[in-house]
Amino acid sequence: MSTQTEKSPVIGKKSSPRSEAFKTFMKRLLKNKAAVIGGLVILFIILVGIIGPFLSKTDPNAQDILNKLQPPSKDHWFGTDNFGRDIFTRIVFGTKLTLKVGFLSVLIGGVVGIVLGIVSGYYGGIIDTLIMRVMDVLLAFPGILLALAIVSVLGGSLTNVIIAVGIFSVPAFARIVRGSTLQVKKLEYIDAVRALGASDGRIIFKHILPNIMSPIIVQATMRIATAILTASGLAFLGLGAQPPEPEWGAMLSDGRAYMHNASHMVMFPGMMIVIVVLAFNIFGDGLRDALDPKMKQ
Amino acid sequence: MNEMENILVVNNLQTTFKTDAGDIRAVDGVSFTVPKGKTIGIVGESGSGKSITSLTILRLLASNGRVNGGEVLFKGKDLLKLPEKAMREIRGNQISMIFQEPMTSLNPVYTVGQQIGETIQIHKKVGKKEAIQQSIEMLKLVGIPSPEKRVKQYPHELSGGMRQRVMIAMALACDPEILIADEPTTALDVTIQAQILELIKDLQNRLGMSVIMITHDLGVVAETCDYVAVMYAGQVVEYSDVRSLFKNPKHPYTLGLLNSLPRHDIEQEKLIPIKGMVPSPHEMPVGCRFAPRCPVATELCHNKMPQLLNTNDSNAEQIRCWMFSDEWDGDSEVTLYGEKRTIKG
Questions:
Q1: Å from A104 to nearest chain B CA?
Q2: How many CB atoms lie under 10 A from the CB of residue A238?
Q3: Structural contact between residues B308 and B293, judged by C-beta atoms closer than 8 angstroms
Q4: How many domains are there within chain A?
Q5: What's the gap in Å between the CA of A243 and the closest CA on chain B?
Q6: CATH number, residue A206
Q7: Is residue A88 part of a domain?
Q8: Most buried of A77, A231, B114, B199 (most Cβ within 10 A)?
Q9: What is the pLDDT of residues B159-179, one digit of tens each?
């Protein structure tokens, strides 16, 4: 009974409907245990990335050749690598790099993809064909190959990896945004504001964009996982972050030669990549289910 | 009728849509005038082109729609020739429009106040606070109780009737001279319908605007309109003042429409539907478009398209039917829906 009275809108009630919608969203999200765990892991990783480097007393690049390839111990939780550097410290410092790549590249890909997708969907016709065919070309490449090609043109550095992964995220955003725009622009309130004299820019950014945010948020979360994976892959191939930067993919690559007698060198960075990517994916799934129950399959 | 009094003159309007199956002439030579401060009704079945006519006037056609000819003179200016920017300044400011579905005509992510305020801010140089203040005034005008609270609410918190009131408030926020109402009551409960029509009428009297009422409901026409244009298959078939349309309908289609409606003012044994269907836009008859369904159609009707004729000396009454021309080749007395008629000439 009490839930029913809660639902019916009462004039002058304190909480705004927006916060009410947020409440139902949170309720749905919190019901999904996996998503909650994923979210907590992401939160923890972000915290580690931000404050970890300040807490660490060791330099991630400090070499200690005498103690190289040490297995995990009390002094070196994750062991040491072939130069005697503390792997735990390096992973903590690497967290920041990983998150930076993930968030920045998705930001680049997202902004460009959203603008292209919304313009494509809204105007249609030749503009749409042109933009979407270019996106199709980009999509035709297997993800990592495209990023690989871009990095080999731009040169290997973390910034270029961010740009490359950003470009490779553009088509995914453009597609999903175009689809949602096509749906929303047909709705009557778009006709209504146009009939009241709104310009295209106002319709696109004030009326369409806020109404297609849910799929964008979900897509962004999922793309962060892909971006991290791609960036690590590039680093593993030696095209991403350059030594001695403590990038997880690069650490994995360094450890490859010692895999048989010092497996901890590959195990820990590898594990971290898996955990972070998995966390973002599971959390993204949960977000999708909570934001848009209709999309659930 | 004095030309100066006509705020909007639509002349021989033609709109086509490109489709995969070929071009569709959705509006084909539609003409009518809107006198200042009056209400003109555009009636017709779905697909008769009435909504497309209104969208063409405001130049809001979908991208596959094109205006092939005609003119829309608003205070002497041809709207079809204006640049898009000038057109935007007219929309919502001088000519406004409200739509059929109040449930989906408001953006779900903004409050009522933000949406009414937006119209004001598009056309007038006012701040956000001032715009919200004016929104409250508008809500008061359209008869929404406790507007100070409603202004902060979202569309989903309002009922259909309330939302249609909000839509009207949005459309009238800049004090337009013409309001185009596209089936404003079709989606509402009957009791609410009467309220909304009453509101539109009342506001029209207070603000002195003209209204173009697009509807398929002859009841709405009888209640609100001064003049009526009856549309069939993209053409106006009869235009007259509302009183003579109901009292003395001339076009067989109008007669058929009236006969398919229950009326309280005349004895009817049973309702007589119009036989057949509206012709497909891809296969329009060469002659009169109503001929295939018309009980009195002759050879002439099937082979030659009638023009819109003045039935008396003024152009206040126009009809598109061969029966009213000198060329009529049928009997001089016909029976239309059980009613005997003598044809002139």
A1: 28
A2: 13
A3: no
A4: 1
A5: 48
A6: 1.10.3720.10
A7: yes
A8: A231
A9: 888 999 999 999 999 999 999
Rounded to two decimals, the pTM is 0.81
A84 lies in some domain:
yes
* Structural domain contains residue A25: no
Any idea what DSSP says for residue A208?
I
Residues of chain A numbered 11-70 and touching chain B (CB < 8 Å) = 11-12, 16-18
Encoded tokens for A131? 């933009």
* pLDDT, chain B, mean: 88
**Is A85 part of any domain?**
yes
Q: Is the pLDDT of residue B268 over 80?
A: no
Best of A189, A204, A209 to substitute, by most chain B Cβ atoms within 10 angstroms, is A189
Q: In chain A, which residues have their Cβ closer than 8 Å to the Cβ of B119? A: 196-197
pLDDT of B235 > 80? The answer is: yes
- Backbone Cα Rg of chain B: 21
In the three-class reduction of DSSP (H, G, I as helix; E, B as strand; rest coil), residue A269 is classed as helix
Task: Give ipTM to 2 decimals.
Answer: 0.83
* Best B105, B148, B152 residue to mutate vs chain A (most A CBs within 10 Å): B105
- Contact between chains at B92 and A187 (C-beta distance less than 8 A): no
pLDDT at A8 over 70: no
- Please tell me if residue A211 touches chain B, with a CB cutoff of 8 Å: yes
Give residue A118's domain range.
31-47+77-291
